[in-house]
Amino acid sequence: MSVTTFTSREINQDLARAKRATLQGPVFITDRGKPAHVLLSIDTYQRLTGERRSLVEALAMPGLSNIPLATPKADIRVHAADFS
């Protein structure tokens, strides 16, 4: 992960380049030479905040169908309840 730094003026002049830079890591935005803001991709933000995705979203991830998944059969047996 690389950290990129942009001045406020550079952000105003080339936001598209800053957005592309977020794919490599956080983008620090400086104001008068001091870090003032951080620009992140949505994936990085969700990972950092612990935002959970739904099961449907997780199963719809690209490339998931290429992962072999061997699940053992469940051994479910019915037992009489012991109420003593």
Overview of this protein structure:
It is a single chain. A hairpin with a 2-residue loop joins strand 2 and strand 3. This protein is an alpha+beta fold and 84 residues long. The protein has 4 helices and 3 strands. The termini are far apart. The mean pLDDT is 86. The chain has a 3-stranded mixed beta sheet. The longest helix is centred in the middle third of the chain and has 8 residues. The chain has a domain of 49 residues: YefM-like fold, CATH 3.40.1620.
- The SSE string, one letter per element, is EHHEEHH
Distance between the termini: 60 Å
Which class of the domain at 4-52 in CATH terms?
A: Alpha Beta
pLDDT averaged residue by residue: 86
Portion of residues in beta strands equals 15-25%
The coarse overall form would be: elongated
Number of strands: 3
CATH level-4 homologous superfamily of the domain at 4-52: YefM-like domain
Structural class by helix and strand composition: alpha+beta
Q: Runs with pLDDT <50, length 5+?
A: none
Helix content: 25-40%
CATH topology of the domain at 4-52: the name is: YefM-like fold
Brief rundown of the structure:
With 84 residues, the protein is an alpha+beta fold.
What distinguishing features does this structure have?
three-stranded mixed sheet, alpha+beta, single chain
